[in-house]
Amino acid sequence: MENIEQYIEALIFASEQGIRSEEILYCLQAAFEQDFSVDDINIHIGNITKKYLQDAMAIELVKINNGYQFLTKKAYHPVISLLQLQRSKKKLSQAALETLAIIAYKQPVTKTDVEQIRGVNCDYSIQKLLEKELITITGKSESVGKPILYGTSNLFMDYFGINNITELPQLKEITDNSSSIGEQTE
């Protein structure tokens, strides 16, 4: 087969995790009913690796944990991280953002405190924020029942581009008087 490397590239690209040479071998033998050896596959993988080492390519073939994956070259990581940051911002619901804001401004805070401010159950929002690692458990309150205290994480700081909580906008900075009625007198 003359285009075997393209099939190998397709298998590596389509694999959600690293794919081992043996898995590639199995797929090719089953699809084409031909005998290949692991050595043949490894030679083709070497050729593919060389192909992607060229400066014109933004991705490279990397061996990780005995499997092969296509990954973005390190030179492109800063721009990729901006894309991931932008996409992760879009994934926060309005309820999660409100919950996150309360935790950020009132930390350390209990779930009950957040629910009293929002007026609704916050179990789901807090769970999602914990999963996204935007908040962390900071300890337990000394009040009755010793409820869990929540605070923002280091990832929260990265996410919003701040160095510490004091850099969050103060209420007077974000208050908009454009919707007020009548004249303002001082």
From TrEMBL:
Q: Some GO term, biological process aspect, for this entry: which one? A: cell division
Q: Which InterPro entries match?
A: ScpB_csome_segregation, WH-like_DNA-bd_sf, WH_DNA-bd_sf
Q: For this UniProt entry, which residues form the secretion signal?
A: none
Which Pfam families does the UniProt record give?
Answer: SMC_ScpB
Q: Which UniProt keywords apply?
A: Cell cycle, Cell division, Chromosome partition, Cytoplasm
Please give the superkingdom of this protein's source: Bacteria
The record ties this protein, via NCBIfam families, to:
SMC-Scp complex subunit ScpB (TIGR00281)
Task: Tell me what this protein is called.
Answer: SMC-Scp complex subunit ScpB
Q: Which organism is it from?
A: Mucilaginibacter segetis
Q: Which gene encodes it?
A: scpB
